[in-house]
């Protein structure tokens, strides 16, 4: 990582969540790389699982006050999402919530480069431009497309200590990302075959990692599948759906529940409705049953 960091300015804002990285050794490993690269650091911790716009503005204020040259996200998808929002909002002349998340205004201001050190697989935020942010006073959870991280470090070992609760949530998020793209359109699309391969890999690796959290190969495959599930590949030639995500985000805006769990809560009912109302959907589900689940 120090080699990548060397391409950017001197002052780095290190961003992470509740502090688990201090307990599992990841914090010390990252700090060693920062020192090796000769960087000055300022820290921002406490990024929550569903990051809020208020927390984003806290990061914006710190980034501007310290004139940081680079933002380093160490965590899961929420931390990565958060850092993209801060990077695109720090020098925005408008209210970021209104301008970006409510009105999809074009990002024309300065972007602070972002790097991600992934500690949980699920969202695919390490290789896409999307940032999902909540505003509890409005009971809303909304997204905006900023820019892809400038680099991401994916080390499966860093996911060994993720609790089962969050591991399962991440796995379901990955599966949901694939299904949102797979279960759309009626043509025999090449990307559907790629999606089936990714889902088969996810099923196999998920069962392994729930039995052995330190199965390197399984953790590696889950992490890699998460990245490919939402980096644009599976949307090629597809209309895509995303209704499960819209429903899940609405639930999370009111409950602040974990993202993967809100998706699992709403998807069953939504997919049953699709099957009941559309023979095309029923046909695709039959293909899913045989091609992925044997």
Question: What is the compact description of this entry?
Answer:
The protein is α/β, with parallel strands linked by helices and about 290 residues long.
Give structural notes.
- Helix content is 52%, strand content 13%.
- Helix 10 (243-255) crosses helix 11.
- The chain contains twelve helices and seven strands.
- It has helices at 2-5, 20-23, 26-36, 53-66, 77-89, 96-102, 164-182, 190-211, 216-229, 243-255, 259-277, 279-291, and strands at residues 11-15, 40-44, 70-75, 114-118, 130-135, 140-145, 151-154.
- Strand 5 (130-135) and strand 6 (140-145) form a beta hairpin.
- It has a five-stranded parallel sheet, with helices on both faces. It has a two-stranded antiparallel sheet with strand order 5-6.
- The chain has 294 residues and is α/β, with parallel strands linked by helices.
- It is globular.
What is the fold's blueprint, element by element?
Blueprint: H1 2-5, E1 11-15, H2 20-23, H3 26-36, E2 40-44, H4 53-66, E3 70-75, H5 77-89, H6 96-102, E4 114-118, E5 130-135, E6 140-145, E7 151-154, H7 164-182, H8 190-211, H9 216-229, H10 243-255, H11 259-277, H12 279-291
Parallel strand pairs: 1-2, 1-3, 3-4, 4-7
Antiparallel strand pairs: 5-6
């Amino acid at each position: 990582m120090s080699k990548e960091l060397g391409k950017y300015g001197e002052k780095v804002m290190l961003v992470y969540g509740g502090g688990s990285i201090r307990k599992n050794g990841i914090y010390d490993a990252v700090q060693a790389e920062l020192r090796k690269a000769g960087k000055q650091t300022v820290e921002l911790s406490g990024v929550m699982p569903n990051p809020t716009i208020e927390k984003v503005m806290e990061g914006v204020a710190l980034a501007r006050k310290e004139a940081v040259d680079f933002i380093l996200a160490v965590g899961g998808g929420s931390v990565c999402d958060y850092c993209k929002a801060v990077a695109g909002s720090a020098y925005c002349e408008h209210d970021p919530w209104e301008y970006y998340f409510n009105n999809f205004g074009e990002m024309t201001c300065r972007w602070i480069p972002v790097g991600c050190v992934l500690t949980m697989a699920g969202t695919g935020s390490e290789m896409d431009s999307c940032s999902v942010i909540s505003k509890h006073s409005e009971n809303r959870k909304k997204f905006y497309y900023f820019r892809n991280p400038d680099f991401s470090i994916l080390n499966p070992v860093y996911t060994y200590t993720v609790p089962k609760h969050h591991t399962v949530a991440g796995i379901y998020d990955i599966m949901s990302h694939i299904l949102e793209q797979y279960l759309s359109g009626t043509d025999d699309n090449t990307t559907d075959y790629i999606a089936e391969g990714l889902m088969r890999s996810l099923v196999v690796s998920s069962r392994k990692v729930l039995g052995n959290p330190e199965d390197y190969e399984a953790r590696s495959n889950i992490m890699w599948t998460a990245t490919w599930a939402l980096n644009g590949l599976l949307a090629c030639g597809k209309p895509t759906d995303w209704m499960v995500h819209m429903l899940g985000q609405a639930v999370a805006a009111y409950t602040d529940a974990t993202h993967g769990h809100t998706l699992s809560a709403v998807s069953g009912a939504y997919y049953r409705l699709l099957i009941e109302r559309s023979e095309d959907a029923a046909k695709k589900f039959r293909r899913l049953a045989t091609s992925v689940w044997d």
